[in-house]
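Bumping with the actual sequence this time:
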Amino acid sequence: MPRLVALLLPLLLVACGERRPRADLVFLQSAEPETLDPALATDQVSMRVSSSLFEGLCRVNEHGRPEPGMAERWDISDDHKTYTFHLRAGTTWSDGVPVIAGDFIAAWRRVLTPETGADYASLLHVIRGARAFTEGSAGFDQVGLSAPDPRTFVVELDNPVPYFIDLCAFLTLAPVPLRTIEQHGGAWIKPGRLVGNGAYLLEDWHLDDRIRLRRNPAYWDAANVRLATVEIRPVQDAGSALAAFHTGQCDLLMDKGMVPPTLTRKLREQPWFHTGPFLGTWFIRINTKRPPFTDPRVRRAFALAVDKRRIVGNITQLGENPAAGVVPPGTGADYQPPPGLDFDPAAARRLLAEAGFPDGKGFPRVEYLYLPLAVERNIAVELQAMWQKHLGITVNLIKQEQKVWLKSMRELDYDLCRSSWVGDYNDPSTFLDLFQGDNGQNRTGYADPEYDRLIRAAASEAEATRRNQIFQQAESRLIRDQAAVIPVYTYVGVQFYHADRLTGVRPNLIDDHPFRCMGWK
């Protein structure tokens, strides 16, 4: 420890100041939430906060697994296509209004309505008639949702969905108070207006400073929520975050970007530094709509010029594995991704020459977007050097704050950009559904009818081995034939906390760590 303290001394001077009264738990994350609206939240930092304020039919436990939430139990039909959920008696919103089955129908209809702009709407397309409603070819009365009574909610699916209960614990499927949204519009998520049904209430939100949560006394399981207050602060500088943790000004860090690259090896020796594998992949998105990346040969050349082993060995250094595909090995029913485009500079140069740019001659200057975190900057610099060395192409590096970066991806205002995906549930579809032509999370411009056909075929295939084979065919088109994305490495989860004091934080496959599960010994 003394050597680590010596390394940290310059950082301690910039640690954020303490505020009083101190929350029971102070948590630092790498960015400000983009939104707290369950239908619109798409990034991990937003979902961490929003999932404390809202709860769906199921909830995630500290092991990352779904368990009963607003629904105390459910029945599944023999053909596994109809789920009947029985809501808990006496559950209410934070303003005392009962939570009823109709709230779920209204919230899910809101997600499916295109005007809402919910990027995750496609998650609900497994429901009978849901896709047709979103596309405007059927009315909502054709969607397989019904409420025989206020405490019974029935969902009819097109096909058996092995991960449907996991979906029911996902934030997008949480109910929202439509009456509050209609009253306040977009401002309904502000303190004093937000009405939730989760373990916590939104007490305060100072942009780019802190969010303060307070235990919700109306929550059905409030007696088991041990932390009365939680404060979330955005800190982008890894050194400042580590200094705050080391001086006791925060209790928990959970973002890989909070690891100062120069201290990674030393930090891994500390008893409060915890890691574990989870369903996440770091990859590079390519804007397939913007020349010269409209040519698959150019995209494949860029992929073949990336030395993934060098990145995980020299930069990230947390035990990550180079990624063959976007789906981590072993996901779901032991899925294994197909062979990807491994490092091959000679093949990269041949493809680039075939595309009309021998040794990079005539290739326009392009840009790579990255986030303002030390490890992201180091990866960006390494990629820039690889593409220059192996392809003769100059790539400009553009740093963007998370909200701007998300907007750039959403609007396809980029050439290349860093990206990542953490599985929303333990199944290959959570990764591969993203790149369907009509998926709001696609953000590459990639649209391949054959890829979409394969994904739909996998969705209707009940036999696990055959289903995995279809997914492999689709993924091979995505990462090899079309090279719409460049998988680089699979994630390792990182948590900084004192396990002898803080309980309820456990590495898990979906990297979800609910505040309601945490407490002090």
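The tokens above came from a reply further down the thread. The chain has a mean pLDDT of 93.
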